[in-house]
């Protein structure tokens, strides 16, 4: 009995030391960038992708399913005990302790396997960009450039080209290819160990409001394959950016932009400009809705159709639970160095403006 108790305290002690150590290390972005993001993390992610990437289904989604079923079972068991008045103060204390232990294990695993990337120096240091406030004129210039780019690509995107990516294997393999192409210009975007898969929760994801996600426990990138085809290529590239260690949503968006604009397929180039225009015009609408509407009125007919389809798709799946999920996810982002919560996705606008100011408007 004493030996058992001793082992329990040792396990708790080890976990607490690891959790505290992770928190201390996260306070040094330079250390995280050099020793974790480009030291330990590549080994972790390559092993996970090589181990599970060959599977035609998402092992991570199955893992989540099992975990959710197990958690529900445990909660139901506690409720049954409570109704039958079989619980005691000691029982509840043990149940709370077990839950705390599991949460601590998940915390250590999450930040060890991927989460420390939230604290890295990131794309700003790699490209020498400055994160700073932009003016309305800066934003107007960006919207103008993105409107022109998406309009240029729209007539080139024939139904045959778009249909060629309806096969998800083709879509995902091309998403992986785009990072190999991008690595010639940006060596830090080199991608090895392809592991992008359709989410088993795609239809459920429509009600929860997600387009894709990265599973840090299995190294897999999941894409919701029921979303409109105009955004699928960019979503796939965004999730690969997470695999490369760009944890913050704005940086994953910007890295996706850097990669997609270099892809030989117009499908990927159109998708990224469609998505970037969406973020930029939304920011402009906050400060000048009249000008934003004027830009929208000058979009190519294909872009207008895709915008209408995109809006109709998400209106179809609106439900009373989604706002609560958004709120919870927003808290998660805020807890991980993204103080704007879900609005952090829109911060890609900051990087796009900083990028064209440094490299010229033709860089957009």
What overall geometry do the principal axes of the alpha carbons give? globular
Mean pLDDT: 90
Number of domains: 2
Total number of helical segments? Answer: 16
Written as H for each helix and E for each strand, in order along the chain, the element string is HHHHHHHHEHEEHHHHHHH
Give a written overview of the molecule.
This protein is mainly α. The protein has 2 domains: 2-119, no CATH class; 124-363, no CATH class. Helices cover 67% and strands 3% of the residues. The chain is built from 16 helices and 3 strands. The protein has helices spanning 2-25, 29-52, 59-83, 89-113, 123-127, 136-153, 159-163, 168-182, 202-208, 232-243, 249-260, 266-287, 289-297, 301-316, 322-334, 348-359; strands at 196-198, 212-215, 220-223. A 3-stranded mixed beta sheet has the order 1-3-2, sandwiched between helices. Helix 1 crosses helix 4 (89-113) and helix 8 crosses helix 10 (232-243). The longest helix has 25 residues, at 59-83. The protein starts with a helix and ends in a 5-residue tail after the last helix. The model has no long low-confidence stretch (mean pLDDT 90).
Keywords:
mainly alpha; globular; three-stranded mixed sheet; 2 domains; single chain; 364 residues
Please write out the topology.
Layout: H1 2-25, H2 29-52, H3 59-83, H4 89-113, H5 123-127, H6 136-153, H7 159-163, H8 168-182, E1 196-198, H9 202-208, E2 212-215, E3 220-223, H10 232-243, H11 249-260, H12 266-287, H13 289-297, H14 301-316, H15 322-334, H16 348-359
Parallel strand pairs: 1-3
Antiparallel strand pairs: 2-3
Helix pairs in contact: 1-4, 6-12, 8-10, 10-11, 11-12, 11-16, 12-13
